[in-house]
Amino acid sequence: MSFEVTLKVRRYSKEKGSWWQEYKLKVDRFTTVVEALRRIKTEQDPTLSFRASCHMGVCGSCGMKINGKPKLACKTLIVNEGRKEITIEPMDNFPVIKDLIVDLDSVYRKMNKIIPRVTPPEEVIQGRAETRLKPEDQKELWSFAQCIICGLCYSACPVVETNKDFLGPAVLAMAYRFSADPRDTLGKKRLEIIDNPIIGIWNCRVAGSCSVVCPRNVDPSLAIQRLKEMSMK
Length: 233
Prior knowledge:
It is an enzyme of class 1 (oxidoreductase). The chain has two domains: about 5-100, Beta-grasp domain (Ubiquitin-like (UB roll)), CATH 3.10.20.30; about 105-230, Orthogonal Bundle (Fumarate Reductase Iron-sulfur Protein, Chain B, domain 2), CATH 1.10.1060.10. It contains ten helices and seven strands.
């Protein structure tokens, strides 16, 4: 059974600035927000701009604010929003490029700062030895390795809103994933980076909003608290 819904989209362009635009269309109980946006772009307004790719909550491309909350458009069913008018906006705390597309470059720059890779001992690199990950270690690290860099946690984070230099939830969760890996040898160096009083872990106020909005059930807030424990040892 189909029903009519109004999508109120906050649009933006360098030439016009920001404005709201409404689109009406019929949807059913299986229609996601990203499917509705694609239909609008195809059937009503080809100038509407947004990102989307996998439609399975894996690529992280379609992050946006839906009814005021950071969500992935491909995982958000319109019927579950419980209203006939849905507001759609670009994510907070990022520069807007056009309409619902934001610039995520700042996240990637911050990611590079924490050395986002496992660096094994020299004898392993030279092929003279090997290191293995125990099942219990893999279980501990697995959830923190599921980040898809969608940016939702940055949009929800109150610290990022006031401190643009803060490394942020996703990057710090990634830092924990590598620092807690027993195969890694750069844990101490990485901890020195994230212990920085301006950009590091001590800026986190444990609001927990990052963990609430994560579509992959990563818990950045928990990762940051564990990094704090590691830095104090």
